[in-house]
């Protein structure tokens, strides 16, 4: 693959992602305006999940920093998270 083609591919991907993010933000704004109570409920659920995972939220002054957890996110619905019991040893023998 030529350098020009790779650069153009990266540019196209960046433009697509920017447009996707803008559309997503507009959709979220519309949903929060149409269903404010549902939004508040979901917001509180997400906040409590983050707190259970040891993450803190940034307040309006920026005093708190978000702390990343090492585990898979709580919204992982693929069922691909492995527990210690189901994790396999793909590294060979010890």
Features:
94 residues; mainly alpha; elongated
Give the distance, in angstroms, between the N- and C-terminal Cα atoms: 41 Å
Oligomer: single chain
- How many domains is the backbone divided into? 2
Radius of gyration: 20 Å
> How much helix, percentage-wise, in residues?
40-55%
Compute the number of helices. 2
Detail the poorly predicted runs: 77-87
How much β-strand is present in the residues? under 5%
Average residue-wise pLDDT:
76
Q: Given the helix and strand composition, which structural class is it?
A: mainly alpha
- Note the main sheet: none
- DSSP strand count: 0
Shape: elongated
Helices and strands, in order, run as HH
Explained architecture:
The protein is 52% helix and 0% strand. With 94 residues, it is mostly helical. The chain has two domains: 34 residues; 33 residues, no CATH class. Helix 1 packs across helix 2. The protein is elongated, with a radius of gyration of 20 Å. About 12% of the residues have low confidence.
Protein topology:
Elements: H1 3-34, H2 36-52
Helix pairs in contact: 1-2
Brief synopsis:
52% of the residues lie in helices and 0% in strands. By secondary structure, the protein is an all-alpha fold.
